[in-house]
Amino acid sequence: MAQMAEKFLLSRLSRAGFGALATVAVLCALLGQPLAAATAAAAAGAVISGRTFHANRQLAPWPKVQRLFFIALLLVLLTSFWTGPWALSHWLYAIPLAAFALLPQSVAALVTAAITLLAVAATQWAEGLAERHQMISAFLLTVMLCALLVFLRDYKTRQLAPLRRTDELTQAASREYLSADLHKEIQRSEREGTDMSIIMIGLDTHLSDNDPDEDIRSILPRIGRYLHSQIRDFDTYYRVADLQLLVILPGIRTRDAITRAETIRKGLGTLLESHGMKLTVSTGIAGLNIGDDADSLQHSAANALRRAQQQGGNRSQAYSAWNHPSSGSKPASAPRPEGPGS
Fold first, then answer.
1. Is the pTM of this model over 0.85?
2. How many CB atoms are closer than 10 A to CB 158?
3. Residues in contact with 224: Cβ distance below 8 Å, sequence separation at least 6, in sequence order
4. Pick the residue with more confidence: 135 or 248?
5. Of 218, 221, 286, nearest to 257 (Cα)?
6. How far apart are CA 34 and CA 336, in angstroms?
7. Residue 338, C-beta contacts closer than 8 angstroms, at least 6 positions apart
8. Is 227 helix (H, G, I), strand (E, B) or coil?
9. Which end of the chain, C or N, has fewer beta carbons within 10 A?
10. How far, in Å, CA of 335 to CA of 317, rounded?
11. 52-59: long-range contacts (C-beta < 8 A, 24 or more apart)?
């Protein structure tokens, strides 16, 4: 509930900010102030292309578009250093926070340092600007406050990381809880005498090296929503790696788990294809056997997934403890479809 309220508030603030900036851009254009109009327009573009404005903005190409608007804003402000008006210098106070919000931390630090040096140099060379010393003092104070906020944000993130139950992108359960939850499910299965299986799902990125990592990660929220729609209420799924997910299926034997894995694999393939991504999906299935624990069961599913991808991907592979690969026999596998899109 708190996360929904936060997203709702940020969305309202983003829309209000976009409306205000767009109005300022139009008024400055009508008043014959092109640089001020361009500054407001670039800032409005950065707001409207952000994920707080709309949830779909976290998908490609919106993150790149937002960064382009931010670069345009920087260029306009740098131009105002030499051509004026000096009133645009007040926009500099928002640059550090915007940089750390939109860019990687190392890049944002370099941008902030460069802007600070240029601002100091420009104010020293400016003539007839009586308040230049006060302005640069206020800007340096703003930069220090920004650095403090970034430090507190990172500190809070590190402190709350062990308490975070779900992954932000896929809404899957965090990997830190996988072993404990899987151990509980194994104990319950053994106590009640029921079957249990797990499915490890992985994107076959090695088959499509042309797709940028950013585009692949942008589809992860949709993959998480699709996977959530395909499992039962008491099934759980986890993000075990950057592009891998694991599903725990209590009460499901290996044969039925293979069928479910094929359904999920084909559905995810259709989802990726509908977004223009030439990626396939493979799955590794492992059923609970006597003597298995949380680690060995995960290892079996990972081996099955690895074998499926080594055989070309776009297939489901089941692992059997009774037919270990080292003995010379192959684990059971689901038949591979004739085409990647099937």
1. no
2. 9
3. 167, 169, 170, 171, 172, 245
4. 248
5. 286
6. 61
7. none
8. helix
9. N
10. 9
11. 52/7, 52/10, 52/11, 52/13, 52/14, 53/11, 53/14, 53/15, 53/18, 54/11, 55/7, 58/218, 58/221, 59/218, 59/219, 59/221, 59/222
Tokens 């460069």 map to which residue? Answer: 114
By DSSP bridging, strand 196-203 and strand 236-241 are unpaired
pLDDT 10s digits, 61-71:
888 888 899 89
Reported as a single tens digit per residue, the pLDDT across 180-209 is 899 999 999 999 999 999 999 999 876 544
Q: Judge contact between 55 and 4, C-beta under 8 A.
A: no
Tally Cβ neighbours within 10 Å of residue 80.
21
Phi, psi of 105 (to 5 degrees): -60, -40
Cβ(199)–Cβ(246) under 8 Å? yes
Question: Of 86 and 170, which is predicted with more confidence?
Answer: 170
- Of 220, 206, 199, 207, the C-alpha closest to 264 is 199
Structure tokens at 285: 């299935």
Residue 146, exposed/middle/buried by CB under 10 A (0-12, 13-18, 19+)? buried
**pLDDT for 166 beyond 80:** no
Which domains are present in the chain?
Answer: 2-162 (no CATH), 175-327 (3.30.70.270)
If residue 287 lies in a helix (H) or strand (E), which one and from where to where?
Answer: strand 281-287
Helix residue ranges per DSSP H, the chain: 2-30, 34-48, 62-83, 95-102, 105-125, 132-160, 178-192, 213-218, 220-230, 254-274, 294-310
Token output for 58: 């976290």
pLDDT at 132 over 70: no
